[in-house]
Design goal:
Length: 397
C-alpha cells in the first residue's frame, strides 16, 4: 500500500505541548477536544500514514481529542475516499473508538473493499458488534477471503455465533483444514467464545505433535467442557516439557486443582527467566498465565508483571506480549491489577513495549477508548485515574 511521506507541524506541536506539561495538567490538556478545529483534524488525518512515528502518533491523538461532530464525518470521508490506502485503514480504526452509530454503515461497506486492512478492521468491528443477519454474508466471504490480514478477523467474527447451525458446521470443519496460520486463528477463536461444539476436532488436534498443539490445548481449557480433562490428563503424562505449562493452564481453566497448576506455571516461568536457552518453555508459561488472566485470574497477571518488569530481552519480549494480550482481552482486569501496583510505571512500560510489537490496531483502539472512558468516570486523584493517566501518557494516545 502507498504511504505518504508527510509532516504536520501542528500535530508535532500538539505532541510536544502535551508531553511538556506537568502530569497534573497533562490529562486535562490531552482531552481538551473543544480546542481541536476541523482544519486540524483534516491535517492530522492526512498524516496518519506518515512513516515518522512522532508525526503519526500526534496525528492520531489530535483526531481522538476532536469533538465527535467534527472527527466522525472527517474520518468517514477519509475511509471512503482518501487517496492513501493506509490512511483509510487508520481512519477506520480511529473511527471505531468514537462508538458512533454511523460507524455500522461504514463498516458494512468496508468489508467489501479492495483494501485488505480495511476489511480486517470491518470484520473485527463485527466481532464485537454481532448481527445474526450478517452470518450468510460472512460465510460467503469465507469462501473467497485468503488474505493473511483478513481471514483471522473474519473467522473470529463467525465464532461469535455459537448457536447458528451453519456457522457451527463451517467453523468445526476449519479446525482440520487449511493453512496452519488460519487454523490457529480458528482454534483460538473457538476457545475464546467457548464453542464447545468444536471439542472433538480441537481434541484431535491437541493429540497431534505440531505447531497447533499448544493452541488446541489452551482452547480445550477455554471451552469449559470438563470432558476435555481426560485428554489433558493423558497429555500431562506424555507431552514434551514445553507443552506442560499450557496443559496446566488448560486444566486450571476447567476448574481442576487450579492452585497447584498455577504454582507450577509460576515456577516454570521463574526457571525459564533465570536460565538462558529456554525460550519455548518461557513462551508456553507466559501464554498459560495470560490465558488464566484473561479468564479473570488477577494473580496470573500479577505474576507476569513481577517477572516481566525487571527482565531483559529476549525473555522480556515473551512476557510483554503475554501482558499485552491480557490488556486487549480483559482490559478491566488489567486496570485493576495496575491500580494495586506501588510503582505502576514499570508495568505500563512493559505494556508499551507489547503494543509496539503487537499488530492489533483495532483491539488497541478499543483498549484506548476504554482507558479514556475510565479516566473520566473515575474520581479525581483516585488510583484508577492515576493509572489511566499514566497509560494515556506513556502509550501516547
Amino acid at each position: 500500500m502507498p504511504v505518504r511521506f508527510a509532516t504536520s507541524l501542528a500535530c508535532v506541536a500538539v505532541l510536544i505541548a502535551l508531553t511538556s506539561l506537568p502530569s497534573s495538567n497533562r490529562a486535562t490538556a490531552q482531552v481538551a477536544a473543544d480546542v481541536v478545529t476541523a482544519d486540524q483534524v483534516r491535517t492530522a488525518i492526512d498524516t496518519l500514514g506518515s512513516l515518522e512515528f512522532p508525526v503519526r502518533t500526534a496525528a492520531a491523538r489530535t483526531v481522538r481529542r476532536a469533538p465527535a461532530a467534527t472527527a466522525v464525518p472527517a474520518l468517514a470521508r477519509a475511509v471512503s475516499s482518501h487517496s492513501d490506502q493506509y490512511v483509510r485503514f487508520r481512519a477506520l480504526v480511529i473511527l471505531s473508538g468514537f462508538n458512533d452509530p454511523r460507524t455500522r454503515d461504514i463498516v458494512l461497506k468496508s468489508i467489501g473493499d479492495r483494501n485488505d486492512r480495511l476489511r480486517a478492521v470491518g470484520y473485527s468491528w463485527l466481532e464485537h458488534n454481532p448481527e445474526p443477519a450478517m452470518v450468510p454474508r460472512l460465510l460467503q466471504a469465507l469462501d473467497r477471503e485468503e488474505s493473511e490480514f483478513v481471514r483471522p478477523a473474519l473467522t473470529r467474527a463467525l465464532a461469535v455465533y455459537t448457536t447458528d447451525p451453519k456457522a457451527r458446521d463451517v467453523m468445526s470443519g476449519l479446525v482440520m483444514k487449511g493453512q496452519d496460520i488460519f487454523r490457529a486463528a480458528v482454534i483460538e477463536a473457538l476457545g475464546d467464545y467457548k464453542c464447545s461444539y468444536a471439542l472433538k476436532p480441537i481434541t484431535d488436534v491437541a493429540k497431534l505433535e505440531g505447531p497447533l498443539q499448544d493452541d488446541a490445548v489452551l482452547a480445550i481449557g477455554k471451552l469449559g467442557d470438563k470432558r476435555g480433562i481426560e485428554t489433558l490428563a493423558a497429555l500431562q503424562r506424555t507431552a514434551p516439557r514445553t507443552l506442560q505449562p499450557s496443559i496446566a493452564a488448560a486444566i486450571c481453566l476447567l476448574g481442576s486443582n487450579c492452585s497447584s497448576h498455577q504454582n507450577y506455571i509460576a515456577e516454570t516461568l521463574k526457571f525459564a527467566t533465570s536460565h538462558a536457552g529456554f525460550q519455548p518453555l518461557l513462551r508456553s508459561a507466559a501464554g498459560g498465565l495470560a490465558a488464566l488472566a484473561v479468564a479473570g485470574n488477577k494473580e496470573s497477571a500479577q505474576l507476569l508483571i513481577e517477572r516481566g518488569v525487571p527482565s531483559r530481552d529476549p525473555e522480556r519480549a515473551a512476557m510483554a506480549l503475554a501482558l499485552g494480550m491480557v490488556a486487549l482481552r480483559n482490559t478491566s482486569l488489567l486496570l485493576n491489577v495496575l491500580e494495586a501496583q506501588a510503582e505502576p510505571d514499570g508495568p505500563v512500560e512493559l505494556l508499551r513495549e507489547s503494543f509496539d510489537m503487537l499488530e492489533e490496531d483495532f483491539e488497541e483502539e478499543r483498549f484506548f477508548a476504554l482507558v479514556r472512558r475510565t479516566y473520566w468516570q473515575s474520581a479525581k486523584d483516585s488510583p484508577t485515574r492515576r493509572v489511566a493517566e499514566s497509560l494515556i501518557r506513556r502509550l501516547e494516545f
